[in-house]
Design goal:
This protein has 171 residues and is α+β, with helices and mostly antiparallel strands. Helix content is 57%, strand content 14%.
Length: 171
């Protein structure tokens, strides 16, 4: 494998684009289909909806009255994660690079909706657990949740990000 291709693959930047593309394609499909379909009766449903707030519609009234806040926060958070990733590149192992790529992809997937659709983020995946209806979510949300859980698990076992094998600080 060519050296530049191997380096690009192991950078995990490509994961950002995969998450954003999958997120936007599935949201586009859900919006166009205006889907309302039980995939597994009583458990998993495809259900097109919009959310102008954050998870579980937290802060709905505030964000509806201040529609510029979430796009700005998403953009700043996404850019901060990119800057962190670039600055810490040589100090991060592959797992941290992958987790950060998932965070960035998920953040920008939802940023696109917040910035370009006044109706809010497109959600369409809905799970029911007996009488509890889990809040509807999307691919970007999945990437964010997987990344946060992975980061928490990694943090339990590592005190700080480890260097890539063979690389030293300051070189």
């Amino acid at each position: 494998m060519k050296a530049w291709l191997k380096k690009a693959y192991h950078s995990y930047y490509w994961v950002i684009f995969v998450v954003i593309i999958l997120d936007q394609l599935t949201k586009y499909w859900a919006m166009k289909a205006d889907v309302e379909l039980w995939v597994i009766e009583g458990f998993f449903k495809l259900s097109y909806t919009r959310n102008k707030a954050i998870a579980w519609s937290i802060g709905h009234d505030f964000f509806v009255n201040n529609p510029w806040v979430l796009p700005l926060l998403s953009l700043v958070a996404g850019l901060a994660m990119i800057a962190y990733r670039m600055i810490k590149d040589k100090k991060l192992n592959w797992l941290y690079k992958l987790v950060i790529a998932l965070l960035i992809g998920g953040t920008f997937g939802n940023y696109i909706d917040r910035q370009f659709f006044s109706e809010g983020v497109i959600d369409f995946l809905e799970f029911h657990f007996w009488s509890y209806e889990f809040p509807t979510f999307n691919v970007a949300d999945m990437a964010l949740v997987v990344a946060v859980i992975a980061f928490m698990v990694i943090s339990l076992f590592e005190k700080e990000p480890k260097e890539i094998e063979g690389e030293k600080h300051g070189q």
